[in-house]
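Amino acids appear as letters; backbone shape is given numerically. Here is one record.
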Amino acid sequence: MLRDGGPLSGSASHHIGRIKGVLDSLLLQETLGERDEFDGVNDPEHGAIGRVTMVPILTGKGAEISRIQQDFGRFLFMRDLLSARIDAESQMAGMKIA
């Protein structure tokens, strides 16, 4: 039921991929450029310890799209977790129910 035409089906995965593609495209349109950002600590004895990463400079709309993208990523993570849990419980029960 969950896999056969439901939220864990192959067609659902296809649609989710299309949504992700739309969000990625919209975010790219709302990106003004990139800037360096330091992620780490400044140690008094050794100096800066960490890494510099490039982060996008977003418009206001881009920041909202980025937030939606993060929420969507959490949704996908929970969906994958649900799928794994159903598979594990099915195997433990010795039957295929999903």
User: Anything to note?
Assistant: The two ends are 6 Å apart (CA to CA).
